[in-house]
Automatic annotation (TrEMBL):
It comes from Phytohabitans kaempferiae. This is Helix-turn-helix transcriptional regulator. It comes from the Bacteria. It holds the Pfam family HTH_31. CDD domains: HTH_XRE (cd00093).
């Protein structure tokens, strides 16, 4: 572990970032060059004391999980992330579809969607980030662990997952998730995480087995998705997708037609928050 190199790299990266670069308010009377240590600690989900000791060349040897959290909080590129791991004495994680490190460019867009339901997901439908209004719409989707992190897995194994969608659309959802998984398995191969998820669903869901045996590919959602919110009722939202091809991450942004009933309900949703929401 290169403590001096790690400390200097962290300081340089912190000082190069401005609050608006990471979705934080600037506030008044700001004199700090770059971000404050307290702000970085919040972004990285670690204590201020722990982060401060790293910048002062002190403290314990940070774990791989801790370094990954710091790399994401500081909005590092993949090359910068890998450099940070090596400074901390760890081998960098793999790149590509299995990586959960969100690119700085995608994060910069995401950080500006404060008043919009949005989420960043992997190719297996695992939610990595949600905006506050995204949580208010669907519940906290980042809290799941294991195969349940995948919306496709939850769709076929957890009936509560379907409560937020119009019943008339359930068959389409099943076809889309099965077809999407089939394409991913073909792309990634028989030893991939997608293939393991396929075999798990085949063993646990009769409905999945039925849909899977249709061998459908290329089935996609319409641009509009119909949600059923427990308090606001039906919302019809357009879903726009921005793809990061290097990481196979997708930014999903949900909007409503201005002046429509769904648009008015989104305004109410920002007030109601995430009370009494059935998780997706």
């Amino acid at each position: 572990m290169d403590r001096a190199g790690l400390a200097e790299f962290l300081r340089r990266r912190r000082e190069s970032l401005q609050p608006e670069d990471v979705g934080l308010p600037r506030g008044q009377r700001r004199r700090t060059t770059g971000l404050r240590r307290e702000e970085v600690a919040t972004l990285c989900h670690i204590s201020v004391d722990y982060y401060s000791r790293l910048e002062r060349e002190r403290g314990p040897h940070p774990s791989e999980q801790m370094i990954a959290s710091i790399a994401q909080g500081l909005h590092l590129s993949l090359d910068e992330r890998d450099h940070l791991f090596r400074l901390a004495g760890h081998n960098p994680p793999t790149r590509g579809a299995t990586s959960e490190h969100i690119s700085p460019g995608l994060l910069r867009i995401f950080d500006r969607l404060i008043d919009t339901p949005a989420e960043i997901v992997t190719e297996l439908g695992e939610t990595l980030r949600q905006t506050p209004l995204g949580v208010a719409l669907t519940g906290d989707l980042t809290r799941y662990t294991g195969p349940a992190r995948s919306i496709g897995y939850r769709w076929f194994t957890d009936p509560a997952c379907r409560a937020l969608y119009h019943p008339d659309d359930h068959e389409t959802h099943s076809r889309v998730y099965a077809a999407g998984l089939r394409s991913t398995v073909t792309l990634r191969g028989p030893d991939s995480r997608a293939a393991r998820l396929q075999h798990l669903l085949l063993s646990r869901s009769e409905e999945f087995r039925t849909v899977w045996n249709e061998h459908e590919v290329g089935i996609r959602f319409n641009e509009a998705k119909r949600f059923v919110h427990p308090q606001l009722g039906a919302l019809e939202l357009a879903c726009q997708v921005l793809l990061d091809p290097e990481q196979s991450h997708m930014l999903l942004v949900y909007t409503a037609v201005p002046g429509s009933e769904s648009y008015e309900k989104l305004q109410l949703l920002s007030v109601i928050g995430n009370q009494d929401i059935v998780p997706r």
